[in-house]
């Protein structure tokens, strides 16, 4: 009798395991079938030339943790237990088109690592700086990298940033993907592989916090263990270092600042620059450079950069519906009274 009962129990366990396997397999198949297929949109990167490192950039910090490849067409920056690394544009820009193909550090664990591609002028305006950020936040336990975008204008004193987070629809460690910032008097657009993922439109409500002063472009990798992954729960594991990020297809086009034509390299080991005295607000700040004779090739006022097409807007809506995981405009705990542009 006991043997029969045990046999029935084993049959039930076997059936239960088979059932769970089928359910999990079906769920995996369903998830695979829902993988995002990007639409084919006009490639804005085709409008502008690429630059080698020496043509448009300078080391920022990190010494030998910054390495050039293929005559400066590619740049590797790495984080180890000694330092991170970074580079910056030689010029400061007032509006423009800024893009790079980036391959993230490989591995199943990159918690605490922050990879950033951003515009800033904090060294020139320490109390009222502007900033436009792509921040890529490392992961733990095989979870995906988080892509965070942020916008500061005039220090954003009241709201301290306007963050959004997007879950990427691909593995950014396997191959290069393109990340682009468009910034002009009409809007700021963040694009991934030519797909808009966020637009900040200029309006009277956001005007006090809209970036309005010349900025340099920075690319950095550094230790953000105190906040980057699950609020600082998971730290950088330097036994897995170095964490190496690769940059290529560098494109920087826009209005070059007249007062600060070249950005001087800084030895600071962090993306926060050392303060310096701000230039007079009444001084002429910039003069424009043109990318070509066609209006479509104008990096500041061209029709391809001042507004989104219907196809671009539709693609952005689809991405945000499926992959947006956080928006400051929906965070009532942080903002009991939402910033005015959220309304």
TrEMBL record:
Biased composition (Basic and acidic residues): 295-308
Enzyme Commission identifier(s): 2.4.1.207
Domain GH16: 30-247
Keywords: Apoplast, Cell wall, Cell wall biogenesis/degradation, Disulfide bond, Glycosidase, Hydrolase, Secreted, Transferase
Localization per record: Secreted, Cell wall; Secreted, Extracellular space, Apoplast
Region (Disordered): 258-308
Biased composition (Low complexity): 273-284
Signal peptide boundaries: none
Enzyme class name: transferase
Biological function: Catalyzes xyloglucan endohydrolysis (XEH) and/or endotransglycosylation (XET). Cleaves and religates xyloglucan polymers, an essential constituent of the primary cell wall, and thereby participates in cell wall construction of growing tissues.
Family membership: Belongs to the glycosyl hydrolase 16 family.
Official protein name in the record: Xyloglucan endotransglucosylase/hydrolase
Species whose genome carries this gene: Papaver nudicaule (Iceland poppy)
Origin organism lineage: Eukaryota, Viridiplantae, Streptophyta, Embryophyta, Tracheophyta
């Amino acid at each position: 009798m006991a043997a029969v009962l045990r046999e029935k129990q084993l049959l039930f366990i076997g059936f239960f395991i088979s059932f769970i396997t089928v359910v999990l397999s079906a769920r995996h198949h369903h998830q695979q079938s829902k993988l995002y297929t990007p639409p084919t949109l006009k490639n804005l990167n085709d409008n502008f030339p690429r630059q080698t490192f020496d043509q448009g950039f300078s080391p920022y910090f990190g010494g030998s943790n910054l390495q050039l490849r293929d005559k400066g067409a590619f740049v590797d920056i790495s984080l180890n237990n000694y330092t991170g690394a970074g580079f910056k544009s030689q010029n400061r820009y007032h509006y423009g088109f800024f893009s790079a193909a980036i391959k993230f550090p490989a591995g199943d664990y990159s918690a605490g690592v922050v990879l950033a591609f951003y515009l800033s002028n904090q060294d020139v305006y320490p109390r009222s700086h502007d900033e436009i950020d792509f921040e890529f936040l490392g992961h733990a336990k095989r979870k995906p990298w988080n892509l965070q975008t942020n916008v500061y204008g005039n220090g954003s004193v009241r709201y301290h940033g306007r963050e959004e987070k997007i879950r990427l629809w691909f593995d950014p460690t396997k191959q290069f993907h393109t990340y682009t910032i468009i910034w002009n008097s009409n809007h700021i657009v963040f694009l991934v592989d030519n797909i808009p993922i966020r637009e900040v439109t200029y309006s009277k409500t956001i005007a006090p916090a809209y970036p309005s002063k010349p900025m340099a472009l920075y690319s950095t990798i550094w230790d953000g263990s105190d906040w980057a992954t699950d609020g600082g729960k998971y730290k950088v594991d330097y036994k897995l270092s170095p964490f190496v990020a690769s940059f290529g297809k560098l494109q920087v086009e826009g209005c070059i600042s007249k007062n600060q034509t070249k950005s001087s390299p800084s030895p600071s080991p962090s993306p926060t620059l050392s303060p310096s005295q701000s230039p007079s607000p009444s001084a002429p700040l910039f003069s424009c450079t043109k990318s070509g004779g066609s209006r479509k090739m104008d990096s500041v006022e061209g029709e391809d950069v001042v507004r989104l097409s219907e196809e671009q807007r539709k693609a952005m809506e689809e991405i945000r519906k499926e992959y947006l995981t956080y928006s400051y405009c929906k965070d009532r705990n942080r903002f009991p009274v939402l910033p005015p542009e959220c309304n």
